[in-house]
Amino acid sequence: MKWIWGQGIDDFELMTNVSKKLRVKLKQDFQIIHPVVKHRKTSKDGTIKFLLSLADEMVIESVLIPSDNHYTQCISTQVGCSMGCRFCSTGIMGLERNLTSGEIAGQILAARSFLKQNNHPLPVNNLVLMGMGEPLANWTQVKKGLEVIRNPDALCFSRRKVTLSTVGVRGKLDDLGRSRLVLTALSLHAPHQELRKQLMPAAAKYNLGELIACLERYILAPRERITVEYVMLKGVNDSLSHAADLVRLLSRVKCKINLINFNPGQVTGFKPSEHEVIEAFQGYLRSRGFTVMLRKSMGSDIFAACGQLKTKIQDRQ
Ligand code: SF4
């Protein structure tokens, strides 16, 4: 745990506090393989998108988002995604396979080693599981990966520095809350079941009332909040009547709301809401006592922003 994950050593020979005999045995029987940076693009705002190749040549994407003194890394949990959200580029590609816990945590080592080799001064301090895939659809491996991410001998991230974003998967959402491993963000995007089902077909499997009841049961630290994510789609979910329904829906959930500018990417059929419409929506929610943030869109010029992580066939080749 300390050598591989804490220090990023990938040669058993260098693990000098392990007996010589065991090192030989380990070398015979195992290989240490992390995701490898195959390609990268840097946005004019400093966002860096990596195309990472895995041991079986499949590829995933991971993104580093800069702020004043650190990077936030967005990591993937699946190759593709089966949830099919209509506004998301990854949703269009479908699911190819789940990532292993090593591939999930290994994205952090790949980014750290890239930053070190290129003398980037900022550390990766925050993580969001918001890349390709639905983390709770691969919960067994994600949970194992998070244990490595959190372990003080390994990647050593504190709970409040890691956020898992989910559409909500029945049974698993409760597990996530009980695990207390990370903070939770819910991709809500609609204040009622019918509209949510239209935007996110996977929502059909989990009634919105039950999902919200699950969040109401979450045991949170005194100042901790669940993040509710809401992408603003012009003429679809952005009216004041939607805002009023959202207020009613979330009245008993300890949460803050993140409004997200829609980035079209390769998705057709939706447009971003007008600036004034977003402001009015935000103002309404704030007037009802909610903390509301407007998430700045980063990296959209390199298709690294939310919903744009679609791996193209030519990238794979
Ligand atoms: S928004 Fe998330 S859950 Fe939905 S299709 Fe995209 S990657 Fe999957």
Task: Provide a short characterization of the protein structure.
By secondary structure, the chain is an alpha/beta fold.
List the helices and strands and how they pair.
Elements: H1 2-6, H2 20-29, E1 36-42, E2 48-53, E3 59-66, E4 71-74, E5 78-80, H3 89-93, E6 95-98, H4 101-117, E7 124-129, H5 139-150, E8 162-166, H6 172-179, E9 183-187, H7 193-199, H8 208-217, E10 226-232, H9 240-249, E11 255-261, H10 275-287, E12 292-295, H11 313-316
Parallel strand pairs: 4-7, 7-8, 8-9, 9-10, 10-11, 11-12
Antiparallel strand pairs: 1-2, 2-3, 3-4, 5-6
Helix pairs in contact: 4-5, 9-10
Tags for this entry?
317 residues; alpha/beta; DNA polymerase, domain 1; TIM Barrel; ten-stranded mixed beta sheet; 12 strands; disordered C terminus; binds iron/sulfur cluster
Any overview of this molecule?
The chain has helices at 2-6, 20-29, 89-93, 101-117, 139-150, 172-179, 193-199, 208-217, 240-249, 275-287, 313-316; strands spanning 36-42, 48-53, 59-66, 71-74, 78-80, 95-98, 124-129, 162-166, 183-187, 226-232, 255-261, 292-295. The protein is α/β, with parallel strands linked by helices and 317 residues long. It has 2 domains: 1-32, DNA polymerase, domain 1 (Orthogonal Bundle), CATH 1.10.150.530; 33-316, TIM Barrel. Strands 1-2-3-4-7-8-9-10-11-12 form a 10-stranded mixed sheet, covered by helices on one side. Helix 5 links the parallel strand 7 (124-129) and strand 8 (162-166). Helix 4 (101-117) crosses helix 5 (139-150) and helix 9 runs parallel beside helix 10 (275-287). The chain is globular. Iron/sulfur cluster (SF4) is lined by residues 81, 83-85, 88, 90-91, 132-134, 167, 187, 307.
